[in-house]
TrEMBL record, chain A:
All copies of domain ABC transporter, residue ranges: 8-240
SUPFAM superfamilies: P-loop containing nucleoside triphosphate hydrolases
Organism in which the protein naturally occurs: Pseudovibrio exalbescens
Family: Belongs to the ABC transporter superfamily.
Name of this protein: ABC transporter ATP-binding protein
PANTHER family documented for this protein: HIGH-AFFINITY BRANCHED-CHAIN AMINO ACID TRANSPORT ATP-BINDING PROTEIN LIVF
UniProtKB/TrEMBL annotation, chain B:
Protein name, per record: Branched-chain amino acid ABC transporter permease LivH
InterPro entries for the chain: ABC_transp_permease (IPR001851), BCAA_transport_permease (IPR052157)
PANTHER family referenced in this protein's UniProt entry, alphabetically: BRANCHED-CHAIN AMINO ACID TRANSPORT SYSTEM PERMEASE PROTEIN LIVH, HIGH-AFFINITY BRANCHED-CHAIN AMINO ACID TRANSPORT SYSTEM PERMEASE PROTEIN LIVH
Top-level taxon in the UniProt lineage: Bacteria
CDD domains in UniProt: TM_PBP1_LivH_like
Cell compartment(s), UniProt: Cell membrane
Originating species: Pseudovibrio exalbescens
């Protein structure tokens, strides 16, 4: 898209689980200020790519460069201190911690002085969390947990936000709320978002650019609109996904 | 009644020592799901370090009281620091290389570490009992036994043990519940992968858990030494098994559970010895553990595993 160096540059990444190959040489770019969506069927390797960016598991071959720095072999906790945050698959809320404590965990890598302001900001974004701040994470509904997972990721003041299926298992109205929140963060704060989705229609509409992954390789790329209009994409990923 | 009161005092004292050791078991189990069988021996090492420091500093009962207290605080700090290094080392050598290996592997190295520590102390310090003259004599006479013929004593030593334990446990509970280190530890306990995704250095957090457990065990070691006045290289085994029982009774993984469990095991043992037979005190403690586990498999204060969504 632009000529500048991308914020996240993934080149020829191969990831294995034991002897089984999950990513077979993935190339992907995310530029500063973009929303990039990765779609693909269940088991295509989308979540694996997201976790590989975070070094868990690490790529066996290829390279991942973030903000000009090679992070391929860095330990996860160091990567997460460089401005990358992830709201992972399955949300992974700490069940025996309160909502507030979950958010404190998210804010751990950020400087303390920002905490109050950031807390206010995520409570504005997701007012439900404010009501439930003293409730333990395990007692929240699926939608609330999803909001909490995103809010927790935001508390680290990320430059690059990785969102793994934020719409999974949620009611359409909540999906809309969450996608609106993502859009707003991108527009007003210039947050760069890399989004993995099965809910392809909404995710591609939201995105500047998209990628399609099949069996551990990228098969198509283009702007969100282009991908939405492609017959193959429609047939494979949009059947019934428009609602 | 007087007799009962005396047993209660003795039981709480013993329970305090068990509770301090039990915290180390329960925290390590909570964070890596492994029983650190070497923890009892870490307690023993702590007792020896305390003894060596006391002898090296030349502390005796004849030392003026204020100086004695200051010296004992110094002994406590030294014992905690050095024992913590031992705890850290055991984790680094025996457990960390095996993380991600099959579940039984670190359990086996734990037993190995336990034997290694015992033998090391046996060889370097000798196998004989090491006595220590009592540093604090006397105490409060709560009842002179005029009517019952039984005098109730609350010794200064017992007060010291109970007060130190209460202070340490309160401080420790605060640390776990309210500091960012404590939060990181609880996060690792609940979901290590997610903790790493939030920038927590999981290995370092686990190491610190071992360090804290070992430091508390060192406190227990010093108290055991001063209370009973004798240590040998094998005290870690029995105390370790008891403290482990306490942790399981209270609900392994639960911090208040370990404290409660320690207290209960101490009380059960003393009361059984006082009213029935000394020989069967261990049987009593373990029987009650078995009965509790039949009806409450997760222990008294353990967390039920239903919250997972």
């Amino acid at each position: 898209m632009t000529m500048t160096e991308p914020l996240l540059k993934v080149r020829g990444v191969e990831t294995y689980y034991g002897k089984i190959i999950a990513l077979k040489g993935v190339d992907l770019d995310v530029h500063e200020g973009e929303i990039v969506t990765l779609i693909g069927a269940n088991g295509a390797g989308k979540s694996t790519l997201m976790m590989t960016v975070c070094g868990s598991p690490q790529a066996r071959n290829g390279s991942i460069v973030y903000a000009g720095e090679d992070i391929t072999t860095k330990p996860t906790y160091e990567i997460m201190r460089t401005g990358i945050a992830q709201s992972p698959e399955g949300r992974r809320i700490f069940p025996r911690m309160s909502v507030l404590e979950n958010l404190m965990m998210g804010g751990m890598v950020a400087e303390n002085k920002y905490f109050e302001d950031d807390l206010k900001r995520v409570f504005e974004l997701f007012p439900r969390l404010k009501e439930r701040q003293h409730q333990s994470g395990g007692t929240l509904s699926g939608g609330e947990q999803q909001m909490l997972a995103i809010a927790r990721a935001l508390m680290s003041r990320p430059r690059l936000l990785l969102l793994d299926e934020p719409s999974l298992g949620l009611a359409p109205i909540i999906v809309r709320q969450i996608f609106e929140a993502i859009n707003e963060l991108n527009k007003t704060d210039g947050l760069t978002v890399f989004l993995v989705e099965q809910n392809a229609y909404h995710a591609l509409k939201l995105a500047h650019r998209g990628y399609v992954m099949v069996n551990g390789v990228i098969t198509m790329t283009g702007t969100g609109k282009e991908l939405l209009s492609r017959e193959e994409v429609k047939a494979a990923y949009l059947e019934g996904g428009r609602h | 009644m007087d007799y009962f009161l005396q047993q209660l005092i003795n039981g709480v004292t013993l329970g305090s020592i068990y509770g301090l050791i039990a915290i180390g078991y329960t925290m390590v189990y909570g964070i890596i799901g492994m029983i650190n069988f070497a923890h009892g021996d870490i307690f023993m090492v702590g007792a020896f370090i305390a003894l060596i420091t006391i002898v090296a500093l030349g502390i005796t009962a004849a030392t003026p009281l204020l100086l004695l207290i200051a010296a004992l605080v110094l002994v406590l700090v030294i014992a905690m620091a050095l024992t913590a290094v031992w705890g850290w080392t055991v984790e680094r050598i025996a457990y960390r290389p095996l993380r991600g290996s099959f579940r039984l592997a670190p359990l086996i190295t734990a037993i190995g570490a336990s034997i290694a520590l015992q033998n090391f102390v046996q060889i370097s310090q000798g196998a004989r009992n090491k006595p220590l003259q009592p540093l604090f004599q006397g105490g409060f006479q709560l009842s002179d036994g005029a009517g019952t013929g039984f005098a109730v004593q609350l010794s200064y030593m017992q007060i010291l043990i109970i007060v130190t334990t209460v202070v340490l446990m309160a401080g420790f509970t605060f640390l776990i519940n309210n500091t960012s280190l404590g939060r990181a530890q609880r996060a690792c306990e609940q979901d290590r992968k997610m903790a790493a995704l939030l920038g927590v250095n999981v290995d370092r957090t686990i190491s610190l858990t071992f360090v804290m457990g070992a430091a508390l065990a060192a406190v227990a070691g010093l108290m055991f030494l001063m209370y009973y006045g004798v240590v040998d290289f094998f005290i870690g085994f029995v105390a370790g098994v008891k403290a482990f029982t306490a942790a399981v009774l209270g609900g392994i993984g639960s911090l208040p559970g370990a404290m409660l469990g320690g207290l209960l095991i101490g009380l059960i043992e003393t009361f059984w010895s006082g009213y029935f037979s000394v020989e069967y005190k261990d049987v009593a403690a373990f029987s009650i553990l078995a009965i509790v586990l039949i009806f409450m498999p997760e222990g008294l204060l353990g967390k039920p595993e239903v919250e997972k969504v």
